[in-house]
């Protein structure tokens, strides 16, 4: 279930539900949240409160809970914040201490004179297939790693990695976001010497996996968890229609000065938009609104969808707070040459209406399993 812990703050609610997935029904978490939630008033209190509770649970060796709390504590910290790396690595350390049941091997995949952190999970000893999972705009591969239990008993083992602009590839190796995600995906496939794979993209990874499938034909089946059509549409989603049109016109006219003057006035009092732009600067290495939006504009399925000739599953949350639901039909129209195209829409009535089915991940994972099983011989 998706809980509204804080009134009128969908961004904070999503992050809390996201990190506490699987443990939020425990009495300890419920007791903690009774103390934590009233303390959350701004970004500073957010960091201080989650960090202090992370330390408390870490001392008790409740590593699953410490992991979740440190994951929340680091979320809004800028990359140049002196606390960022320390908290990130406490988050990751507690993750692996909490999940000793996962049979994994860590790798460093050569990429652009450095490396991409990768994990191969050996779920099924006799598996003949590999699923590559691509994460998104603000996640670490470890966040998705807990989902591998859903693939027990299937014909799959799983490879996850932090790509450009993601997780430790960004934090530790300073590899920046790129729209051309076929390059890191091909590097992963080459490194593991795979002839064919299936691929799943999570959140912004829903764009990355379509982009990869358009140019990397060793990918056979494609899962967009959720669909993600256009980066600029996502960045501008919470502006009014008139404002969106005005910004697009400025970008089309390459009006650097007016764009850089306008955006700060629009986002200065909106914590969610401030986060989106601040994280965008961090991911891409850009420094101004104009340069960021021009970079994000390149993250689009428009114009490349016809190159995808694999089986495709699009998942969509009707109340997705990041990805405009109206973009779904645009993506469907782009995928004209897909071998097959399936769409699964989640609503409040079905559950899973939030971004990436936050609060009901199980519904999405069941749909993904069914899709992959149906196309196992393709």
TrEMBL record:
Among the Pfam families in the record, one is: Abhydrolase_1
Q: Keywords for this entry?
A: Hydrolase
Recall the GO molecular function terms of this protein's record.
hydrolase activity
Start and end residues of each AB hydrolase-1 domain: 137-337
User: Record's Gene3D superfamilies?
Assistant: alpha/beta hydrolase
What InterPro entries does the record point to?
AB_hydrolase_1, AB_hydrolase_fold
Protein name (record): Alpha/beta hydrolase superfamily enzyme
Origin organism lineage: Bacteria, Bacillati, Bacillota, Bacilli, Lactobacillales
């Amino acid at each position: 279930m998706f809980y509204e812990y804080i009134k009128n703050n969908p961004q904070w609610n999503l992050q809390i539900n996201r990190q506490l997935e699987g443990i939020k029904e425990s009495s300890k978490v419920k007791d903690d949240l009774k103390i934590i939630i009233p303390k959350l008033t701004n970004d500073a209190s957010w960091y201080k409160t989650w960090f202090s509770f992370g330390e408390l649970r870490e001392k008790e060796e409740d590593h699953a809970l410490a992991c979740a709390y440190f994951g929340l504590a680091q979320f809004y910290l800028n990359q140049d914040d002196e606390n960022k790396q320390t908290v990130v690595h406490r988050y990751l350390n507690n993750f692996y201490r909490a999940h000793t049941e996962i049979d994994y091997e860590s790798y460093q995949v050569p990429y652009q004179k450095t490396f991409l952190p990768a994990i191969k999970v050996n779920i099924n000893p006799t598996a003949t297939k590999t699923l590559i999972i691509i994460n998104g705009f603000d996640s670490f591969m470890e966040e998705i790693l807990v989902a591998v239990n859903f693939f027990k008993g299937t014909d799959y083992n799983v490879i996850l990695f932090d790509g450009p602009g993601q997780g430790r590839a960004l934090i530790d190796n300073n590899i920046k976001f790129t729209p051309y995600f076929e390059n890191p995906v091909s590097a992963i496939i080459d490194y593991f010497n795979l002839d064919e794979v299936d691929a799943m993209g999570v959140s912004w990874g829903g764009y990355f996996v379509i982009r990869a499938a358009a140019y990397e034909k060793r990918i056979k089946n494609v899962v967009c968890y959720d669909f993600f059509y256009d980066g600029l549409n996502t960045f501008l989603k919470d502006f009014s229609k008139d404002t969106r049109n005005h910004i697009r016109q400025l970008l089309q006219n390459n009006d650097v000065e007016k764009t850089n003057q306008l955006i700060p006035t629009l986002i200065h009092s909106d914590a969610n938009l401030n986060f989106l732009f601040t994280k965008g600067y961090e991911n891409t290495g850009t420094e101004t609104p104009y340069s960021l939006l021009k970079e994000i504009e390149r993250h689009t399925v428009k114009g490349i969808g016809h190159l995808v000739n694999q089986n495709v599953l699009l998942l969509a949350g009707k109340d997705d707070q990041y990805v405009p639901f109206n973009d779904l039909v645009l993506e469907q129209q782009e995928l004209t040459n897909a071998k097959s195209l399936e769409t699964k829409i989640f609503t409040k009535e079905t559950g899973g209406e939030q971004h990436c089915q936050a609060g009901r991940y199980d519904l999405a994972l069941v749909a993904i399993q069914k899709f992959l099983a149906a196309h196992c011989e393709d």
